[in-house]
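Collaborator request, handled under Task 6.
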Amino acid sequence: MSKTTKKPYVAFLCLIAFAWPAMADEGIYWMNSWDQDCYEYGENTCRDDWYKTPQGSHLIMWEVFKTIEEADSQDLFSERNSLSKYGFLFPELNTYTSSAGDYDGSYGERVERDLSQDGLALGMVKDKSRLDNVNYLGLTCAGCHTSSITYGSNNYFVEGGQANADVARFLNELADALEANRNNSSKYSRWRSRFKSYVRSNRDYGAKTISTWFINQYIDQAIDYVRGFSDRNHQQVVNGPARLDAIGSILNQLHVSHANESESLAKPLTAPVSFPYIWDVDELECVQTNCISNNPLARNIGEVLGVFGYVDVDESPIIDNTIEMLGQQLGLNSLFNSTAKVDNMYVLERTLAKMTPPKWPSSFPALDPQLVADGQAVYTANCTSCHVDTTDGIDASELTAPNSIGKQFIKVTRQHYTEVGTDPAFAEDYGPRKEKSGIMGTAISLGAPDSVDPETGIPFGESFPDTFNGLVLLGAATDVIIDDHFKTLGFKLNAYATFPELSASDAVEALKAEYVSGQVDRGEITPTSYRAKPLDGIAFTGPFLHNGSVRTLADLLEKPEDRATTFNTGTTEYDVNGAGYLSGGDFLLDTTIRGNGNGGHVYGTDLSATDKAALLEYLKSI
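C-alpha cells returned to the collaborator:
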C-alpha cells in the first residue's frame, strides 16, 4: 500500500499550486498524474494500457461499426462528430510538442499523444473474441471512466472518473443507424460498397475470415444484438449523461440473455447510478455501490458480462446440473466459457493502481490555504466517521484487520439505505432481487456445500433453492470464470516465471493473490447498503450521491428540501464555486422521479455557513 504515513497537507497543496503553471491557451490537459514507473522513453506507458487494452466487451462486428452511416445522414456513425454527440471523448486533433523537453503525459501537461484506436473515441477498441475469433467493437474501462471538464478556454481530462457519456442513448441510436443502413435502399447500397472495400483494405489474417457472401447476416446480427440489448434493458428511469443502470443491465444480460431464458423475464431498469470514480479502488475493502464484492477482478468480469460480454450459463434441460458441472470441470461442455479476458483485466487493474486522483488546477481560482486548513478540521470532526481521509496518509485505525495472507485494506463504511436516506431504488430493486438459480446455484452448492441458506436454514449441499439472490449468483459465475482461468497452463507458466523463487504450487497461489488484489477471503455481502469511501478527487466527480441527483458539493451541504429538484446534465462546463458541473446540456434530470431522488445524506447540512464554506474549500483541495 503506497500511502503509509501522515503528512502535512496544506503545505503540499501550496507546492502543487506552484508546480503546475497557469494555463491560458486553448487545449486539453491531464488532471491526473501517474506513478513514476509509468514513464518510459518520454511516454506514459500506463496510459497506453489504460486506453487500449481490450477486456472482452463485444458490441458489434468491428467492420460493420466502421462502415455504417448515421440514421439521418450520410456521415459515418463511427466518426468523431457523431460519437462526440454522446459524450465520448477524443484527444486533440492537432499534435502538441512541449517546449519544456520530453513529453511524459504527466499531471498538468497537454493531452498530446493519440491514445484512441483507429480514430475512435477514447476507450473504444478492436477486440478479438476468445470464442469465435471475430473482431468486435469493444469498450475498455476508460470509455466509461474518463470525464471532461471545461473552465474558461481550457479543457481537462479526468482519468478514472465519471464519463460524461450517455451510453444508453448511444445504443438506441446505434440500433436506429443499423436498421436504417439495412432498410433504406440508398443507405444499404452505400454500406455494402463501403463494407466490401473496408474488408479488402483491412484484412486481419489472424481473425475469422469475413465473407461478403454473408454481408446481410453480419448487419442482421448487429441489429439483433443492439436492438435486443436496448429492448431487454428498457429504461423505466432514463439514464442520461454520466449515469448508467449497470447492475440492472448485468442482471438482465446474465439471467435472461446468457441463460437463454424468455425475454419476458427481463425487468425494466429503475436505478441508474453515476459511473463511480475508481482511483485507489484496489486499496479499498470492497467495491460496487453496495459492496456486493470485495474483489476488483470479479467486479470487472461482472461488468464485462453486462457490457456486451458473454458467459455460457445455458444449462441443458435434460442433464442433471451436478453432472453438467462435473462435465464443465473436465472440459466436456462449454458452460462458463466467456469472452472475458482475465489476463487483460489484471493488466488494467494493475495499471489503475498507478493512477492518482485529480487535483485542483492552478488555472482555476486559487484556493485559500487557511480556509482549506479550517475545512480539514471540519471534515475530521464531521465526515471521517464514514469517509476515511486518505489525503494525509493512512494510519492503523483506518485499515481493516489483516486477512488470511496478512493484507489490509482501507475501511469502507456501509450504511443501510434507510439510514443514509438517499434514493432507495437501487437497494430495493436490485439488492434483494431473485433470479432462477440454474447452473450458477449448482456452482454455489458444490463450492460451499456446508453454507446455510439464511431463509430456510438448510445447507446448500443438501438443497439449493430454485431462485436465489441474483447478485450472489452473478458472483458465482465470475468465481467459476476466475477459477477456470487459474487452472490453465498459461496461468501456471506465468506464475512460475513471475515467482521463480517459489515452489510451483506457491507460485500459483501468489499470482492468484495478485490477480485479486490480495482479496483472497470472502467479504461481507451487504446488498441493501450503500458504501461511503474516501473522497480524494471528489470535486471532479459530480453530479453527486450514488445516482447523480445533486449537482454540486455546495448543493449537497444544503438540506434536501433546499436542493434543486431539476437541473440539466451533459455540459462539461465546471462550476468552480459550487464544485461540480454547471446546469447545462440536453438532459433534464428530474429528482422527483423514483430512482432520481436527491434526498438523504443530511450530514453537514446543519453546519454554519462559515464551516460549510471551509469544508467545501477543503473538498476542492483533496
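The cover message to the collaborator said: "The chain has a mean pLDDT of 92. Residues 215-232 form the longest helix (18 residues). Please let us know whether this matches your experimental observations."
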